[in-house]
Structures are given as C-alpha cells and as structure tokens.
Design goal:
about 400 residues, alpha+beta, Beta Polymerase, domain 2, Serum Albumin, Chain A, Domain 1, seven-stranded mixed beta sheet, two-stranded antiparallel sheet, 19 helices, about 50% helix, elongated
Length: about 400
C-alpha cells in the first residue's frame, strides 16, 4: 500500500466525520514525515467525535483503548488509529497520565504532544495546520511542546524518544531539551525496559546513530539504560553499530557483558542473532575452516559480523579475509543443509545392519562435514563406501575406526 493510497483511504474517514458535523485530521508522525518527504507506513487520525460516536459512524471498529479515546477504524480493510481530541492529567509515575480528558479543540490536543515536529495536523485535502508555523521542522530541530522539563517529567521515555528522533531524522536537539535531559536523566529508571528497548531499536535503524549516541553519553542517559549502563563510556562512544543486536555483540565480545544482556528483555530471535554472532567471532578467532563457517551460519549473520569487525577492528586482517572468503564461498557450497545429503539415517542403518542410536547422529555429522569439505562426493554409493571403510558394527556396537 503506497502512502498516497493510505492518505486517500484515510481521507474517507475524515470526510465521514465532516459529513456528520465532526472534525477530523491526519496527525502525528505521518504528517511530519509527509511534510519532510519521508516514506509513510501508517496514518493516524484525530477527531472531536467521542469514542462511542466513532463506533456508531463506522461499520468496522476495534476497541483498543476507548478509555483513552482510541478506536481502530477499518476502512477498505485498512486499519487506522482514530483518537478523540484529549488533554491529560498529572503523570505521577513519569510513565502514563493519571487521567485523560476529552476536549473539543484540536489546538488543546496538539498542545499536550511531546515535540513540536509531532504537534501538527493535516486536513483530508492535505492542508497543514501547524500551531508552531513549521519553525522547528524547517530548522531541523527537536524541541518540546512547552517546557522541556514538564514534558519529560510527564513521560520520561520522551527523553530517549528525543534522541531517537536525532538518529531517525538527522535533526539537532534544542539546547533547552538537552539541558532538561541532563537534569532529569534519572527519571528513565521509571520507564519499563520494553519501552526503552523499542526506542533503541528504532534509534539504531536511523541515519545518524553516532550523533544520538553522543547525546546519550553527554546527557547521562546511558547511566540509566539497561545493559548500556555497564558499558565503559569511551568504548560506547568508540563502537560503531547498525542495530541494537550489533551494539550488544560488540560490547559482550570486548567487555564480557553477557551476564547483563537479559536486562534488555530482547526477543528470542534477537538473542539467537547475538549468540550466533558471538559464536562466529570465536570460530574466526580459532581459525575454523572457512567452508564450515560458510555452512554453519546464515547469510545475514555472516554479513552483519563482517560489518561489525570492519567497523570496530575486533579481529585481525587475516580473520577479516577469512570471513569475506566464507561469504563469497557460501553460494558455491556442495550442500547448504543436511537435507541435501545423498543419504539419510535409514540408509546408514541398512548399510551397517544396525539399529538407531546416538551413533547415528555422530555418523551423520561426520558425513555432513566430509561431504562439505569435498572429501567425499555427495552420492549414496560413495558415502556408503566411506561408511563401510570407517565404521563397523561389532556385535551391535557401532565403532568408528578413523576419519572422525
């Protein structure tokens, strides 16, 4: 779905509001990114219609937070988050408002948002409403709506969001915002780890990661971030990473911080990526055969570690050459997984007249490696001949004679 179609479909929602004497506007990040000429992947809408009224106006809706004014409206099978204009009460826990109050005024809704670049709205025909006249957007500055200390006091995650936008948009941080973060960095301790990790993932997908990292170190945020607070400041500023996983790999490898990785509460996929990357670094250090390296690791792990070692000087020039050779070799391997072996466990049991057991896995592992290293041709008769020469069945006990 192109962004043009997203806005075109979303306009149908706004037009229905207007046809029923309500207001409706595109709002938030979609407006910001559209104005900047950036890609838009999802579009949010705000309105003065109350949640119950939203549900009445549309055939397909999903209640995802009616008490906070948010309803998902499905239009042409596309989901749009629609939120009633609102203002918020006190944030006593620095994480979420104690109360939400609905309002009939768009300007009041925009005034409670985090940054001026996110406090813009747009009509169905793409006319911009910006109470800040686009000043900060044009100057490429991240500035809070109102007093920075107040905004960061309401939701401490906004401090990290400000830095994330530095990376994502390649913007500068306003001096007042920087000073407020430096004064209140400790409030990040109130924020759930999952929210912090989500912001860091977006930060590392940005276009100016290093600028954001500099700000995290300069303001003291690093000292209140899970896992990162254990990293030496000099090493943190020196490292170069293109993802949160890469940053973790670098510091676990250099600084032995594996015991603190669990603090980030990463997904199983992310943890496996980090584990495999560290194992690959050890295999390279131990000079494992490059065909085995090419075979054992997924292409994305090989390429990611290649970037890591080239940007961070983790290994010697010889190790870098080894990894590049493995990457180049991967498409040309004789086999790419065990399913491509010309024999299976049944064939081996038949050849040796033996029952299955632990020996079978060991035998298949050995054959797999020998075929991969091209010591055996990958056809059934060649492999069976090799097995008969290297493995014997001695009264039901499988014995490996050599070649293991």
């Amino acid at each position: 779905m192109t962004e043009h179609n997203l806005f075109k479909t979303g306009a149908k929602i706004i037009e229905r509001f207007e046809d029923n004497n309500y207001e409706g506007y595109f709002v938030g990040g979609a407006v910001r990114d559209y104005t900047l000429g950036r890609a838009v992947s999802d579009v949010d809408i705000t309105t003065n219609a109350l949640p119950d009224e939203i549900e009445t106006l549309f055939e397909k809706t999903i209640d995802v937070g009616k008490e906070h004014g948010t309803i998902i409206v499905l239009m042409d099978e596309l989901p749009f988050e629609v939120t009633t204009y609102r203002v918020e009460g006190e944030y006593t826990d620095h994480r979420r408002p104690d109360n939400v109050f609905f309002t009939q005024h768009l300007k009041e809704d925009l005034s409670r948002r985090d940054f001026t670049i996110n406090a813009m709205a747009m009509t169905a025909d793409m006319k911009l409403y910006d109470p800040y006249d686009g000043t900060d957007l044009k100057a490429r500055i991240i500035n809070t709506v109102g007093t920075a200390s107040d905004r960061f006091g309401e939701d401490a995650l906004r401090m990290l969001r400000a830095v994330r936008f530095m990376s994502q948009l390649d913007f500068e941080l306003a001096d007042g915002a920087k000073e407020a973060i430096s004064q209140h960095a400790g409030r990040l301790d109130y924020v759930a780890v999952e929210r912090i990790t989500a912001e860091l993932e977006k930060l590392y997908r940005g276009i100016n990661v290093n600028s954001a990292k500099d700000m995290i170190a300069a303001t003291g945020l690093k000292s209140h971030m899970p896992f990162f607070k254990h990293i030496d400041k000099v090493q943190y500023l020196k490292s170069r990473a293109q993802s949160l996983e890469e940053e973790a790999v670098i510091h676990i490898y250099n600084d032995s911080l594996s015991a603190h990785l669990s603090e980030l509460k990463l997904s199983n996929r992310q943890k496996m990526t980090i584990k495999q990357s560290l194992k690959l670094l050890e295999d390279l250090k131990n000079e494992i055969n490059i065909k085995l390296i090419a075979y054992r690791y997924e292409t994305d792990i090989l390429t990611s570690v290649n970037v890591i070692i080239n940007n961070n000087e983790l290994l010697s020039a010889n190790h870098k050459e080894q990894l590049q050779s493995a990457i180049d070799m991967e498409p040309h391997l004789v086999i790419h997984n065990r399913n491509e072996l010309a024999v299976n466990g049944n064939a081996l049991m038949t050849a040796l007249n033996a029952r299955g057991g632990p020996w079978l896995s060991v035998c298949l592992d050995t054959i797999e490696q020998e075929v991969l290293l091209e010591n055996i041709e990958n056809n059934e008769s060649e492999i069976i001949n090799w097995v008969n020469s290297h493995v014997t069945n001695e009264d039901g006990n499988i014995v490996f004679t050599d070649g293991r």
